[in-house]
Amino acid sequence: MTPDPIARFLSAVAMLCLHMAASAAPCVEPPADPANTYDAPHTYAKLAPRYPAIRIASAALPVDVGRVADLTYAQLGTRCLKLDLYLPLAARADGGMPVVVLVHGGGWRAGFRAEFAPMAVRLAQHGYAAVAISYRLSGEAPYPAAIHDTRAAVRWVRDNAGLYHLNPQRIALAGGSAGGQIASLAGVTGQLDRFDPGAGEGAVSSAVQAIVNIDGLSDFTAEAALKYEDDPAKQPSAAGAWFGGRYAEKTALWAEASPIRYVRPGMPPILFIASAQPRYSVGREQMAARMTQAGVANRTLVLPDTPHSFWLFDPWLQTTVDAMVAFLNQQVPQR
């Protein structure tokens, strides 16, 4: 595609966004929370002494990737839920680009969608449209609001597939840390309407065709998970704040939110990418074994000598993207 068509495309998208903004009811995002410090710079300051060779992955846009920012994918009263869309700028004459919806981490109570901008850029360079979403954090809305929001973002992708040349039949969910658990749960429950208030007769599906869980829990109820997630010294723990109570108080919710509970034939295949810190992916091995027994494709990549949040940094981000692309090329192939 030459620069002129690229410019025309981005101009058309910008005009459409302005029209949509003008015609929609006013809505806002909450103000920035100074306590929300789960981002690459703060994490780098913690990790650099042990890993001096790492560097924060760049989110700069190369010439072959376009970005459409601050699109509202859902509105709850006056509350906007927004996403950023990253698009390959190569011409496509087929059924559209496969899509990866990216869910940020932060212990269900922190984090920013910009965390996944570097990954989104690199996925777009491989021919995948990437959608980085914000969702309601636990301080605003407890479980299962984040699952509802993620499913709504998938539906937005399908609703707008024609506008952005996306393939509505090739959508994957991916996330890191808490976002990995959210993406996994939203993906494995795609057939269950109770996790999706927008479901119903005539509604566009929010099911996905593949999942990438990066260092996210698969079982909240396992002893190894409860050691950290239900630590009595934390009042509350990150998971306890999300569920609105400790495990003994909200046992059913802790179990319901565990992706391992939904293994079944026909579920989406999953790529597990894990750090060298096993506490963050408790239940992964057991879930993968159950998936294999059910005949569902799965793959696990454990990156040696890595901290949690490795995907924010080079050189690990490129390894992560390469593994994702290889997996997605099999499960949601480009045409």
UniProtKB/TrEMBL annotation:
The keyword Signal applies. Keywords: Hydrolase, Signal. Residues 1-24 form the signal peptide. GO terms for molecular function: hydrolase activity. Residues 83-274 form the BD-FAE-like domain. Pfam families: BD-FAE. The keyword Cell inner membrane does not apply. It comes from the Bacteria. This is Acetyl esterase/lipase. It comes from Duganella violaceipulchra. The lineage of its organism: Bacteria, Pseudomonadati, Pseudomonadota, Betaproteobacteria, Burkholderiales.
